[in-house]
Amino acid sequence: MSSNNIIEMEKTSMVSIKGEIDIYSIEKFREIIEERIKTQAPEIILDCSELSYMDSTGMGVLIELRNKTKEMGQKIIMMNPRPNIKKLLSLTGVDKIIEIVDNPVN
User: Fold this and answer.
1) 11, 19, 34, 89 - which has most CB atoms within 10 Å?
2) Which secondary-structure segment (H or E) carries 85?
3) Per residue in 54-70, is it b (16+ CB within 10 Å) or e — as a string?
4) pLDDT given at position 67
5) What is the mean pLDDT of residues 27-37?
6) What pLDDT is attached to residue 49?
7) Could you tell me the domains of the chain?
8) Would you call 59 helix, strand, or coil by DSSP?
9) In sequence order, what are the residues at sequence separation of 6 or more whose Cβ sits closer than 8 angstroms to the Cβ of residue 62?
């Protein structure tokens, strides 16, 4: 998983997620998102257009981070996930607690 592109806007913080989120990359993913949570941006957008794979470890941390943002009055939005990621989010019910969009929020 690599995420070199972090864009901060007035109301959002956007992170481009590339590659895989799994047991081998999860700590970097967690660190990057927790850093974005600290900015207190109301919305943290994860650009998932280049996210190719997520395992159960990734799902667990995603839910944990979603709960943390919710406690702080923020929210995580997943933007442009690939069909395999959308299917995983749907099968696990995560699409009911994390907003999934095909375009950036204006």
Assistant:
1) 89
2) helix 83-92
3) beeebeebbbebbeebe
4) 97
5) 95
6) 96
7) 2-101 (3.30.750.24)
8) helix
9) 21, 54, 76, 94, 98
